[in-house]
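> call design_seq(struct)
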């Protein structure tokens, strides 16, 4: 209601981006409050996004459009910073089995957790599987959870007087974090391959045949 009221004020007519800037302030404020109570800032930012998502603005800059530009900037910084934190030295061969199992669990839980409800809503099995597979990629949230775990292990290592125990905690935290990063990458890359190789195979063949026929006639 506050944003809708602001949308009709004179200052918004003069500066259409005013409401968007104010909405970003709300998002950062919610994120700060979330951090203050001990949970991730992404939770607070998500709640703020839910609050402003359905705001219908008539005179102001579209919040979603402005957020897309910010997403391009902040998402790049976010993923690059996490990539810098990830230490590939902890990606050892004995972790491969754990990572494979984690990938299978990540795929199965999303496919079942999203595909079955879609089927219960009356969709076909193919449509349900497409929804389940499409929801599979783990991205920002999984990496944030991994980062929180890594920071927690670092705090425990710093509070431990035994150097051997401290090194063990640091190694465990880094191994878990790099495993989550790898799972996020795998689940993100594998989805387009599944869609192109399984769900859209028939459509792709038809498109290739149509293109070949056009080239033949031309």
């Amino acid at each position: 209601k506050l944003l809708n009221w602001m949308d009709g004020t004179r200052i918004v007519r003069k500066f259409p981006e005013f409401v968007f800037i104010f909405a970003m302030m709300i998002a950062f404020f919610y994120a700060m409050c979330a951090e203050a109570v001990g949970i991730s800032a992404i939770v607070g930012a998500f709640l703020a996004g839910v609050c402003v998502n359905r705001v219908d603005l008539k005179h102001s800059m579209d919040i979603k459009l402005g957020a897309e530009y910010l997403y391009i900037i902040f998402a790049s910084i976010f993923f690059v910073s996490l990539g810098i934190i990830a230490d590939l030295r902890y990606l050892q061969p004995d972790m491969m089995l754990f990572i494979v199992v984690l990938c299978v669990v990540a795929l199965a839980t999303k496919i079942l957790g999203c595909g079955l409800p879609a089927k219960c809503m009356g969709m076909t099995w193919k449509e349900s599987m497409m929804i389940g597979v499409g929801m599979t990629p783990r991205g920002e949230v999984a990496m944030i959870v991994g980062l929180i775990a890594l920071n927690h292990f670092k705090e425990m290592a710093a509070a431990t007087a035994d150097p051997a125990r401290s090194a063990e905690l640091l190694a465990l935290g880094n191994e878990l974090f790099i495993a989550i990063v790898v799972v996020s990458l795998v689940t993100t890359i594998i989805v387009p391959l599944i869609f192109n190789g399984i769900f859209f195979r028939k459509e792709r063949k038809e498109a290739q045949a149509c293109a070949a026929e056009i080239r033949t006639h031309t």
